[in-house]
Design brief:
The protein is α/β, with parallel strands linked by helices. The protein contains 15 helices and 26 strands. Strands 2-1-10-9-11-12-13-14-15 form a nine-stranded mixed sheet, sandwiched between helices. It has a seven-stranded mixed sheet with strand order 6-5-3-4-7-8-18. Strands 16, 17, 19, 20 and 21 form a five-stranded antiparallel sheet that branches.
């Protein structure tokens, strides 16, 4: 199945305004600790934003940066930008000044929507970039403009293949690159994955570990629930196990949008394992592969179905997923109906089941390309197909196993090593809380695996014990030559492990 929208198509209509037309204006759209906002109130807030942006001179097809914490203002700004026909550029509101500078210059955005907390950092970029207005949502001037703006707005007519949202690569090996995605893509994945696989319904309440600026959460915790008149639970605080459990107790979500790092923290937290998660009908996991060991520990601790999947910014969101009732530990699932997924060799030939190769995928959620990076666009987008840098293997039942990123693979002693295999082994040790394995070049110019570990009561004895632990369970060349204990693993702007920083 695929979803082909009409040529004139704006996802502000599809995800928000259509709910009003369906008679769902009084449905709860956004739930926070401060209360509930209905779909009617959310549409009015988005229209106010659209009117303010239009008056401020924001035009169709311009990029507009959002650097806001999760909350009703984020949603209103997000849809307000789409309503004027402009393009949403979502960035982490807690970025360092040098990364803010990079995003401002790279995107060429004239307008940024921010809070007073980060406004000075964005103001600093106005002389060296195209940024000429910084709208501060919690500032008195902007609040006045917003409060007096009309709640009526006619959405700008856009084409289904116009740019709608810029997503960013994880940037583990360099600066993040922008993936230009269309209105069509967001509707297509919603129909194929959210409705057809996960089965989002009007009665669902979603809660997310990653924040809305991360494309995985943009879909699973905003667009997908909005597509059916369900509710999203939003909070601005940094997501810790304690914060997450408090939100679950208070708001009783039905779907939890999770990531392996938080899954690991939850199963290692004594207090979390005693919490009541009975409101959840399922949890999803994405962003990184979920080791089978974590899957089993999650099931033992919480008894909630965990559906691991794989998606990319280039194909917007999940196109391989474990189905409800059919999850297989250690796999990322099957191709989502509406997407074709193949495993190919370096020459582009389709490989038989059981062999590892490069992931190729096609479907109607394919991006236009990478902004200002034509060489990378030409290498990755081949006709209808997107050729990912991910290595996978498909079994005879159609389930895929993730074998790692091609740029993360290590050549050790003439043999290939996927860091995820060593990480999965180490996570089975009861004193390992988090781990990342990277290749480090030694004095002889040879690459050796080193493990960076967040552990319980680390010492030299534990380091040696973990090396022995791996040697007993893996082939000898795979064991980490060094175990380095750290208090926390560094993260990219999207919250993934920053392997480049560890290698450095």
């Amino acid at each position: 199945m695929t979803f082909v929208p009409p040529e004139s198509f704006n996802i502000a209509d599809y995800f928000l305004d259509a709910r009003i037309q369906e008679g769902k204006a009084e449905n709860a759209a956004i739930i926070t600790d401060d209360g509930t906002q209905t779909y009617g109130e959310t549409r009015d807030a988005a229209n106010r934003f659209a009117n303010v942006l239009s008056t401020a001179g924001v035009r169709a097809e311009e990029r507009v940066i959002i650097a806001l914490p999760d909350g009703p203002e984020y949603v209103a700004a997000f849809f307000g930008i789409l309503k004027v026909g402009a393009v949403v550029v979502m960035v982490n509101p807690d970025l360092s000044p040098d990364i803010v500078e990079y995003f401002c210059k790279y995107t060429g955005a004239r307008t940024a929507i921010v809070t007073s907390h980060v406004a000075p950092t964005f103001h600093d970029q106005q002389e060296s970039s195209r940024l000429d207005q910084v709208l501060v949502v919690d500032g008195p001037e902007f609040r006045e403009r917003l409060s007096t703006a009309s709640i009526d707005f006619g959405n700008v007519v856009t084409h289904r293949d116009d740019p709608a949202i810029w997503l960013f690569s994880s940037g583990t090996t360099g600066r993040p690159k922008a993936v230009v995605q269309t209105h069509r893509s967001f509707a297509n994945t919603t129909e194929c994955y959210a409705k057809n696989v996960i089965g989002y319904s009007e009665g669902d309440r979603t809660l997310s570990v990653p924040k809305l600026y991360f494309g995985y959460a943009t879909g699973s915790n905003l667009l997908f629930p909005f597509s059916v008149g369900a509710s999203t639970i939003l909070f601005a605080e940094r997501c810790t196990v304690g914060v997450l459990m408090e939100k679950i107790r208070t708001h009783r979500p039905t779907i939890l949008i999770n990531v392996p790092t938080m899954v690991n923290k939850m199963v290692n937290d004594d207090g979390a394992s005693r919490q009541d998660l009975s409101s959840l009908r399922l949890s999803t996991s994405a962003g990184e592969a979920l080791p089978a060991e974590l899957f089993h520990r999650w099931q033992d601790a919480f008894g909630v179905e965990m559906l691991d999947g794989l998606g990319t910014a280039e194909m917007w969101h999940i196109f391989i997923s474990n189905p409800p009732g059919g999850a297989r530990p250690g796999t990322i699932g099957m191709a989502v109906p509406g997407f074709d997924v193949e495993v190919r060799d370096a020459e582009g030939r389709v490989l038989p089941d059981g062999q590892t190769g490069w992931l190729w995928v096609r479907g109607d959620s394919r991006a236009i390309g990478y902004w200002q990076q034509m060489e990378k666009t030409n290498r990755a987008f081949l006709g209808e197909w997107y050729m990912s840098g991910d290595l996978v293997e498909r079994d005879s039942d159609g389930y895929f196993r993730y074998r790692g990123r091609s740029d993360d693979l290590l050549k050790v002693g003439g043999k290939w090593l996927a860091p995820q295999e060593v990480e999965g082994c180490l996570l089975e040790h009861d004193r390992v809380k988090e781990v990342a394995v990277v290749g480090v070049v030694d004095a002889d110019g040879l690459t050796k695996p080193h493990a960076f570990v967040v552990a319980v009561d680390p010492d030299a004895t534990l380091a040696e014990a973990l090396q022995v632990y791996c040697r007993e369970r893996l082939e000898a060349y795979k064991h980490p030559r060094e175990v380095i204990f750290v208090e926390a693993l560094p993260q990219t702007h999207l919250g993934k492990v920053d392997r480049a920083k560890l290698r450095a």
